[in-house]
Specification:
This protein is α/β, with parallel strands linked by helices. It is built from eleven helices and twelve strands. It folds into two domains: 190 residues, P-loop containing nucleotide triphosphate hydrolases (Rossmann fold); 68 residues, 2-Layer Sandwich (Alpha-Beta Plaits). Helix 3 packs parallel to helix 5.
Length: 297
């Protein structure tokens, strides 16, 4: 990690977005008091992450991207095991078990073996186990990786309900539609936090130029030709369309059309569009790479 500095407000859904190996899981491990920072400091719920890890862990919940419960135990047995691990007395455990089963949509499934559950239902069970002791913060590390779209939507409905009830949710994700559902985002790349803000605020605050969207029946040829021009190098696929980041629309549009006309590549549509979150992600990473090269890294 490289001088990461961030704060998360109580009751918000904070999304942590970045490519594999960028430092998302390392950050979560430090915030959970499992990994001491080599420099700097941090606190969670007013507790120092380097010295008060056990106190922090007693007040937070955690769900990893891989199903981390016990496949040979039933749903109910998994909940009982983790509830006892949290030190819940039997009366409270019974009440909390009923509550989290209902919350996670697992009513009537307490006798099913965990290994028999689908991926999405397993993650709902993992979340239920993490919520037994009513934590103030829940850390979710890519909880919907490999889960089908319907199950992802159901899981995010649970996240919304948690936040509405006042629980702080810190979630890492690779899915940009999930990132859009967060109150605020932190974009991390190679251990550096490159941007923080709400999805809307990040898009509204982008001052990198104008985004043009190009539709053509030959997008691959168009991509190669446009990227060959130094002034049009920031071109990326967006579905079968191309997004071209330019400084000046009036200068760039005629140039793009001339390059493609010379190669007999038709242009069906070329017009400015608002920045998408995916556009921002690509732009911020490109800007960070340029800054790293400037620092000689």
């Amino acid at each position: 990690m490289d001088h990461v500095s961030l704060s998360v407000r109580r009751g918000e859904v904070f999304g942590f977005l970045g490519p594999n190996g960028s430092g998302k899981t390392t950050t979560i491990r430090m915030l959970c008091g499992l990994l001491a920072p080599s420099a700097g400091r941090g606190d969670v719920l007013g507790r120092d992450i380097a010295r008060q890890g056990p106190e922090i862990r007693s007040r937070i919940g955690y769900v990893s991207q891989r199903f981390s419960l016990y496949h040979d135990l039933t749903v109910g047995e998994n909940l009982a095991f983790f509830g006892q691990g949290y030190g819940l007395p039997r009366p409270r455990l019974a009440g909390r078990t009923a509550a989290v089963l209902e919350m996670a949509g697992l009513d009537g499934q307490d006798r099913r073996l965990a290994r028999e559950l689908s991926g999405g239902v397993k993650q709902r069970l993992a979340l239920a186990c993490a919520l037994l002791h009513e934590p103030e913060i829940v850390f979710l590390d890519e909880p919907t990786a490999g889960v089908d779209p319907i199950a992802r939507r159901e899981f995010w409905s649970l996240i919304g309900a948690l936040a509405s009830a006042g629980t702080t949710v810190f979630v890492t994700t690779h899915y940009l539609d999930e990132a859009e559902a967060c109150d605020r985002l932190g974009l991390i790349y190679k251990g550096r936090l490159v941007a923080v803000g709400s999805p809307r605020g990040l898009k509204a605050g982008m001052r990198a130029g104008v985004m043009l969207e190009l539709e053509s029946p030959e997008p691959f040829r168009a991509l190669r030709l446009l990227r060959a021009d130094p002034e049009l190098a920031r071109v990326s696929f967006f579905g079968r369309r191309l997004h071209v980041l330019v400084e000046d629309r009036d200068e760039a549009e005629p140039k793009i059309r001339a390059i493609l006309d010379a190669a007999a590549i038709p242009v069906d549509r070329l017009e400015p569009i608002p920045f998408s979150l995916e556009d921002l992600f690509v732009i911020f990473l490109d800007m960070e790479e340029q800054a790293r090269r400037g620092r000689g890294e």
